[in-house]
Write a structure and sequence with these properties.
Rossmann fold, globular, 2 domains, 6-stranded mixed β-sheet, 15% strand, 4-stranded parallel β-sheet
């Protein structure tokens, strides 16, 4: 199947379309992180975004393209949490119903949030990819609208608006972005390329769920084990649309160990006085591993969300 790659104009249009619904999140320089990384470190605080995640940008942009709803208008999507919240919220804003298919055992607070937004949450299977199969089956049987969590250009264009906000304020040498399915990293590449900037885009994924990394490295969609406790990084395969962008435009991709990511959660908490969930904290873990490469440079860490589970927070604080 051929997918549409969003352009910088699509991202600029998305920025205008969703402006009234979202928060323009702060981009903050932290001298204490400068000392840790020996670089000029800025944090893009998407953990301060409504619903606590960058994903809502994509869901809302998708919603602006929907037709006027009727009594049977239902959006169905797979999610490990943050994307599901974004679609549930978008459905609520634009008058649709929503069904979110999740793996068993995801963060209970994310399930509660989706249900509070009016979504029907179906927990079944042990992976994102099983949830994707379930969502597709439900949509097909009932003639509902299936929203792909990865291969959807309108989601990527919406998510990319946070990168546009970064470049509105500074011209960094590096932007480090967490990667699950790949909308954030591919969106950052689209914006960097569209604005003709020299910024290097680096993605990070957990070594316990390396499918995105392997797909990029091998330049073909690859499946792999997915055992990460970091929900936003836990995917078992690469996805066609984001990988087509990443393979062409991503400058570097690193894997961080789970322990390094949870340690970074604690460092974020102590130095920014804010809670960053494990996926977002992976950017700091990656930066620590890349300390020689980024020395003396201006670096943006994308704190992609703040919806940490209690178990993950406890694990981080023990380190």
């Amino acid at each position: 199947m051929k997918y549409v790659i969003p352009t910088i104009e699509n991202v600029k249009s998305a920025k205008k379309a969703i402006k009234k619904y979202i928060t323009i999140t702060p981009l903050i320089h932290y001298p204490s992180l400068d000392k840790i990384l020996d670089a000029e470190v800025w944090v893009k605080h998407e953990n301060f975004q409504i619903l606590g995640s960058f994903k809502v940008r994509g869901g809302l942009n998708y919603g602006t393209y929907l037709e006027k709803p009727n009594s049977s208008s239902v959006l169905v999507t797979p999610s490990t949490g943050n994307h599901g919240q974004s679609i549930a919220y978008s459905a609520r804003v634009f008058g649709y119903k929503s069904i979110i298919c999740c793996p068993v055992g995801i963060n209970p607070s994310k399930i509660e949030s989706m249900e509070n937004l009016g979504a029907q949450v179906i927990s079944k299977g042990n992976s994102y990819d099983e949830s994707k199969f379930n969502a597709q089956e439900i949509a097909e049987k009932n003639n509902y609208i299936y929203v792909d969590g990865a291969n959807e250009d309108k989601l990527i264009a919406g998510v990319a608006t946070y990168s546009l906000e970064i470049f509105d304020e500074i011209d960094p040498d590096f932007i480090i972005v967490p990667l699950g399915a790949g909308s954030g990293a591919s969106g950052a590449c689209i914006v960097r390329n569209g604005l003709n900037k020299k910024t290097k885009i680096i993605a990070v994924q957990s070594s316990a769920s390396p499918a995105g990394y392997l797909s990029w490295k091998e330049k073909q969609l690859t499946e792999s084990k997915s055992n990460s406790k970091c929900e936003g990084l836990a995917t078992g395969k690469g996805y066609e649309l984001p990988q087509s962008i990443l393979i062409d435009s991503l400058d570097d991709f690193v894997l961080s160990e789970e322990k390094e990511i949870f340690s970074a959660m604690k460092i974020f908490l102590l130095n920014t006085k804010s809670l960053v969930e494990s996926a977002g904290a992976s950017t700091l873990a990656a930066a620590i591993g890349l300390k020689k490469k980024i020395k003396g440079k201006k670096v943006v860490l994308v704190a992609s969300g703040g919806n940490a589970s209690v178990n993950n927070l406890i694990e981080a604080l023990k380190l």
